[in-house]
Specification:
The complex is a heterodimer. By secondary structure, chain A is mainly beta. Chain A has one domain. In chain A, 0% of the residues lie in helices and 54% in strands. Chain A has no helices and 14 strands. In chain A, strand 9 and strand 10 form a beta hairpin. By secondary structure, chain B is α+β, with helices and mostly antiparallel strands. Chain B has one domain. Helix content of chain B is 17%, strand content 30%. Chain B is built from 3 helices and 7 strands; from the N terminus they run H-E-E-H-E-H-E-E-E-E. In chain B, strands 6-5-4-3-7 form a 5-stranded antiparallel sheet. The longest helix of chain B is centred in the first third of the chain and has 18 residues. The two termini of chain B are 32 Å apart. Classes of the chains: A mainly beta, B alpha+beta. At the A-B interface, strand 1, strand 2, strand 3, strand 4 and strand 5 of A face strand 1, strand 2 and strand 6 of B.
């Protein structure tokens, strides 16, 4: 699993952007990228080689190395840790690449997900090489 | 960290929210992170040891099932050992299965015990848990830059000459 996003912050901690990956043996790593991220950011997860994934979060990022996972799906959304919480996630596009061209999943100008609805997910049977979230600018 | 050169090669996209999470999930994952040889860095100082222990205790309490109710200033009972080492950003990144071109000095702290982190992940996934909690500290700011949980207890000797503090 490779993931990137932002924590909204808490009363005692500032918001920060991060990326996460997980490997066998429950080797799980979270890497902070920047503090006080903007509310509009570029996020991408891209296969860099057969065994690595490049993550970008608003101009900074990391490389998940020795990671030869076969990616089968991608998701975008806003996480909550309790059903009592509500969060909002707005975005207008999610794209995947087969290595030579980009394919949109949603063509609508804006897709918005409120509350604790299921995250927006798409999957593929042919190996994708990258997934992006956001809207053209 | 790496520059955004790769991003600029593609159509510009942006997400419109705070807290947006993008996840690429896998059916299978095969390989483990490698560790590169450690460059020579200044050994960890006493004050850095104290600061690392303070941060490690806080994280260990957050991640320990028996840490509930703790004031966060003492080790949870489940913690069996604590080691710290001074290393470079690049070596620490390699230890964490990442990559960095930076030679900046960092402190790596490893705590052995039983841990579960309430942490981001794909919906339905289990929270990461394991027997070693590792935090990477930037001594210039005393901030934690990386947090890891692994099933096995990994030796910090790959990063330098670790100091045992518990």
């Amino acid at each position: 699993m490779v993931q990137s996003g932002a924590f909204p912050g808490t009363p005692t901690a500032s918001p920060f952007g991060f990326w996460v990956d997980q490997r066998p043996g429950q080797n799980w790593w979270l890497h902070s990228l920047l503090e006080q991220p903007l509310q509009s950011v570029h996020v991408s997860i891209e296969r860099a080689s057969a065994s690595s994934f490049q993550v970008y979060f608003d101009g900074v990022g990391g490389l998940s190395t020795s990671n030869s996972m076969a990616s089968t799906s991608a998701e975008i959304g806003s996480e909550i840790t309790t059903s009592l919480a509500r969060s909002r996630a707005s975005f207008s596009g999610m794209y995947w690449s087969d290595g030579s061209s980009w394919h949109p999943k949603w063509k609508s100008s804006l897709y918005t997900n409120f509350g604790h609805d299921a995250p927006n997910t798409f999957a593929w049977t042919t190996q994708g090489s990258a997934a992006w979230a956001g809207s053209p600018c | 960290m790496r520059a955004r050169n790769g991003l600029l090669r593609h159509p510009k996209l942006y997400a419109l929210l705070t807290g947006v999470l993008v996840t690429l999930a896998a059916a299978t994952i095969f390989a483990a992170a490698g560790v590169h040889s450690s460059p020579v860095v200044e050994p960890i100082t006493a004050s850095e040891q104290a600061q690392a222990e303070k941060l490690a205790i806080a994280y260990a309490n957050i991640a320990s099932s028996d840490g509930k109710g703790s004031d966060g200033t003492t080790w949870p009972d489940s913690v069996v050992s604590f080691h710290v080492v001074a290393s470079s950003r690049g070596a620490a990144a390699a230890f964490a299965g990442s990559q960095s071109d930076s030679d900046s000095r960092v402190i790596v702290a490893a705590i052995a015990g039983d841990f579960t982190l309430i942490a981001p992940g794909p919906p339905g996934s289990e929270y990461p848990s394991g027997h070693q909690l590792v935090i990477v500290i930037d001594p210039a700011t005393d901030s934690v830059t990386d947090v890891g949980v692994s099933g096995e207890v990994r030796d910090l000797k790959a990063l330098g000459d670790p100091v045992s503090l518990r």
